[in-house]
User: What shape does this take?
Amino acid sequence: MRSDDSVTAPLRWSPFLALLGCHEIGVVSPASYSPSMNWGDAPAWAAFVVSVGALGVSIKARSDGKRSADAAEKSAAVAEDALTHQRQMDAERRAAEDEANRPRVMLSCEHAHKAKWQLINHGTATATNVRVTEAVGAMHRPWPENLTLAPGEVYDFLMAGSMQEPLPSVIRVVWDGQEDPVPLRVPPRIG
Assistant: This one.
């Protein structure tokens, strides 16, 4: 090898240099070396165009994949919210059904005959310790203590109105578990 800028040794990688466009085998100097592509090489140009197209397709596929992943995340979040809402609605529905199916006391006051009236439990639960909250002067006997009415049970009581003590239009009662007075309409006397 000389100290100038030329190489006099035979080329070992001539196929490599041929790909770079250096077709001379022999001495290659850095001044004469310029990598260039032969413009007449159609398969190479076709491969280049195909590779550029493949690059474009891969970039597009990547952006489509990202958009698809974002849409999948949003869809999963919406589905999770819908599931949470559905579970909440189911819980509320079950609570309402439980409340509707819970045994209840349903008392009513009805006229039986002349001065005889009836307190009837139409509900599905027992009314324990039924009490009148206001004194009713038209009653002939005091209200019994610890009055208990099972479902369908009837309690008869006497009540007659006068000029001084007319029949009340409402009797207010309470029982164990129902501390707020419940108004029971007193129907008009028949016969």
The first strand starts at residue 107 and ends at 113.
